Here is the input.
Amino acid sequence: KAGVTQTPRYLIKTRGQQVTLSCSPISGHRSVSWYQQTPGQGLQFLFEYFSETQRNKGNFPGRFSGRQFSNSRSEMNVSTLELGDSALYLCASSLAQGAGANVLTFGAGSRLTVL
Amino acid sequence: AQSVTQPDIHITVSEGASLELRCNYSYGATPYLFWYVQSPGQGLQLLLKYFSGDTLVQGIKGFEAEFKRSQSSFNLRKPSVHWSDAAEYFCAVGNNDMRFGAGTRLTVKP
Here is the structure.
C-alpha cells in the first residue's frame, strides 16, 4: 500500500510569505502528526490531528497551524515566514491515537528554505 | 516531562564490527520506546518498538534493542554492521506526542 505522501518535496520562500504543506496518510490511518527537523533543534513535535481535531500541540508560535480533512489528509501552514523556519517538515501517520497505537510511519518530508 | 538523551552524536565503526547506540529516557509512566533510522534526504523508518513484555525486542535489518527500566535505557544493537547501515539513528519515547533524541550519526568504515 502507498506510504505517507508529502507535497511539495522542496520549496523556497522569502521572509514574510506564507507556506502550506500537504500530507496524505496511509490509507486507513486516522492520525497525522507533524514534526520540524533542523540541525540545531533536531526533531520537534508540532501538532497531532485525529478525526479532524487537533489533539496535541507542541511549543511553537501561533504562526504554525494545521488542519485535517475528513479523508484524514492534513495540511500545515506557516505564516509570516522567518529565516529560522527553514527546516525539513515531516509528517507521520498512525492508525489511531492513544496507548499502544501510535506507531508512526513517516513521509519523506518537505524541505522548506526561507530566504 | 518526557525526554530522550542520545549521548553519542557521531559513531564510526568498521564494517562487520558490532554496534551499540545508547539511549536514555525520562518518562513518567511505562514508556513506549522506539528506534528510527533516517537516510540522507529521507523520512524516518521504524526499526523496532517496545510497548511491554519481553525486554529484548527484535527489529528489522538485524537490529535489536534491550529495555532496562533500572537504567532508564533502551540501547540499540547489531552484531555485525553493513555499509548500508550508515545513517542517522533516533531514539524516541512517548505516545501521543513523541519526543525524539538528538540522533546519532553512524559512519561505517570499509
Notes: Chain B has no helices and twelve strands.
